[in-house]
Amino acid sequence: MKTRAQWNASRQNLTDFLEIGDEVDESIMWYFVKVLPPACYRSDLIQIGEPYDFKGGAETFMTIRKMGSSWIYAGCCHVGHSDEPGANYLDFLAAYQAKSHAAAGITPATMAAAAEYSEADEVRDAAKKADKPITQLACACCGGVTRGRQWFNQDRGYGICGDCIAWLRKPKSDTGPARESEGYIRDCYGIEGKHFNVA
Ligand SMILES: [Zn+2]
User: What is the pTM of this model?
Assistant: First the structure.
């Protein structure tokens, strides 16, 4: 978080001291409010009342916007806006996330390791799910008895029978799409031949 005391010590202009995505402390937030009557003063957006530049046909003002309970510097934006002219919200969000990750000690390497870990985890889990033995299951749809492997997304002891799967795949009307998509069937009931409709 950037503080008023750091800014004073830096002897920089505020526009040089702050980078887009920086969290500012309360005292900088109050500076935005009080240095001049603000150009915009909302519960989620404050803009210093002196134009910084003229861009894209209108004046721009130094802007902070609220993200959760924090005030984040968003650059020099048109009145009522929190993206710099020509920039978009995703750029701002990326800058903000990079800075908040850095502040929390999360490096890009940590993020990559986390992504890799969860991927490896998923593969392991999928293998575990597929390896469950074929057992007798209650059909979650009609209550009948069927055989299959437990799918993680069904309550223990529940699966789906062949008749009910066939029904879910039938169109609601002559011309309409299937009652449920294959994606939905996969999410709810697992893989055909493995979890339901087993040989
Ligand atoms: Zn059934």
Answer: 0.55
